[in-house]
Amino acid sequence: MPDASDEEYVAYLSARLPALHRLAYSLCGNADQADDLVQEAATRLFERWSRASRADDVDAYVRAIVVRLFLDGRRRGWWRIRLFAAPPDVRRSEDRGVEERTVLRDALAQVPPRQRAVLVLRFLYDLPVDEVARSLGCSAGTVKSQTSHGLAAMRRLLGDRELAGSTGKER
Amino acid sequence: MRIDEDRVADLLRRLDDEPTRPPRVDLGVAIREARRRRRNRRVTAAGAAALGVLAVAVLPVALHGSERAAPAPAATPSASTPSPTGPFLGECRATLLPVPNSDRGTEVTGGDPDGRWLVGRQSGQSPMDYRLLIWDQEQVREVELPGRDAQLYDVNRAGLAVGSVMAMRGGLQPRAVHDGVAVPLLGIDRGAARAINDAGRIVGWRFEESAREPFVEERPVVWDSYQARAVDLPLPGPEWTGSAIGIDEGGTIVGRVADMSQPGPYQPQRLAVWRPGASRPEVLPQPRVPGGVASTFWPGSFAGGWVTGSAARNLPGKPRSAAKSYPVRINVRTGEVDVLPAAVTTGAGNGRGWMAGVPSSLIPTLVTDKTSVTLPGPDGRAGSAHGWVRSLSDDGRVLGGQLYLNKRGHAVRWTCR
């Protein structure tokens, strides 16, 4: 039977599911795998809810679970097999940015997982270095070096490709 | 214009795309699953002491008569090891394996020491949806295993295969495939079976929630048979984590272990050996590689006393990501350690200490004692296709893996003479 704590958990997490799913999608590039990551993260969170709900920053706590589950899954090699002819999910949209996003996402998908997680958290989510370090469970120095390696890898992958955004203005 | 790194960061900030559909996450399922795990943990905790006694009770049975497990005698070929039919010439050809549905991606993920059996999988309707395949020579058989990311890692000479599947509920689960039917392996909540020997003993790991949440840690386990319950293998200390990755025909088990009490985000992986009769694992020294001692060693396969894997050495003043990595083989019977001449990432090893894998070019390669062989594509040309190698027979003449052709992975067998 649900108790007050269950209701609190459901109220908290249901409001954040879209954002967590988006974070998971940014990390793994696939909506189904993003579902799996968030489903598992939701389970882990409930297991610890009595403690987690009293944390200073519950959002950061949940984000750390998602990121670490992603890295843990990558380490075990779920992602490695190239069995599919089709690329990962591509946004089916006709807007003019779609090609650019596809190119960027394809490049991001080729960056090693830990560097990718750092790039996603720092630039897509605009989190400060210390916060990224807490999410990954590593030092700020490691985040900086991983950022540098990740950006260099992206630059190599994008090569001389011209992207509309590469000459665009800040939003 | 050429893109610089600041611009990359700028572009990433604009990458505001979203999944193509809303999340399909069920919080009710999450709550029920979390409660089930809590219950299981309580049961496991209550039984943990008994399990520990059992683990220690099983191992010393063979200890009587020897104070400490001595290294076994030098490798002697088992009765069933095929005799090479002449000197190894390193001439190989690739054959795409028969598959039930030629439109789907396929791969080989393991094989037996004789090269008769290969195990693998074929992709299904959606990512992570796979059907298991078992080849007995040229005959292929499909195996039903509901769940995601089903994979077989190893098969013995009798055709008994082991692996894992992500169950719809309950996470990663160990499985064996006996006579074409998948059966659950008993005694653990979550984990995977990684290797099996001809006696039918199976090794792998189970997951355990860590005090250093939200990590999950690994514990090495052994099943005496596919019908037996898992027993924990002892770790070097209470703060250690690890998993078993291989078992040879003499019953020696190897795995990787790490001391989690050490500070810092990365604990080096080390090679552990559980010898028959010993009550504790032996943690081997890190191998020497060019320039010094390796910082970490990641064992990939174990056969006939030989562990093949990757050793990495951190460079002073450089980040860990700049560590240089070397293919290494270690003989746990004789103590011999060799850095292999060709830089391949471990895919498979065999009882002669040979290793097959891929270098950075992703061209499948076999490294023997004497030479390095670039494996061919189906057209017969050496190095004509990218791929992976996942199995290598003891005589080095049968390899299994995947070749990437026409934008799709194909299960492949290489035969060499």
Automatic annotation (TrEMBL), chain A:
Give GO BP annotations, semicolon-separated: DNA-templated transcription initiation
Q: Name one GO molecular function term.
A: sigma factor activity
Q: Which residues form the RNA polymerase sigma factor 70 region 4 type domain?
A: 104-154
The entry's keywords = DNA-binding, Sigma factor, Transcription, Transcription regulation
State the superkingdom.
Bacteria
Identify this protein by name. Answer: RNA polymerase sigma-70 factor, sigma-E family
Q: What family is this?
A: Belongs to the sigma-70 factor family. ECF subfamily.
- According to its UniProt entry, this protein's organism is Micromonospora avicenniae
Name the NCBIfam families for this protein: SigE-fam_strep, sigma70-ECF
InterPro entries xref list: RNA_pol_sigma-70-like, RNA_pol_sigma-70_dom, RNA_pol_sigma-E_actinobac, RNA_pol_sigma70_r2, RNA_pol_sigma70_r4_t2, RNA_pol_sigma_r2, RNA_pol_sigma_r3/r4-like, WH-like_DNA-bd_sf
Q: Which residues form the RNA polymerase sigma-70 region domain?
A: 16-80
UniProtKB/TrEMBL annotation, chain B:
Which keywords does the record carry? Answer: Membrane, Transmembrane, Transmembrane helix
Report which superkingdom the organism of origin falls in.
Answer: Bacteria
Q: Membrane as a keyword?
A: yes
Q: Where is the composition biased (Low complexity)?
A: 70-83
Q: Which organism is it from?
A: Micromonospora avicenniae
This chain belongs to the protein called: Uncharacterized protein
- Ranges for the region named Disordered are 70-89
TM segment ranges: 43-63
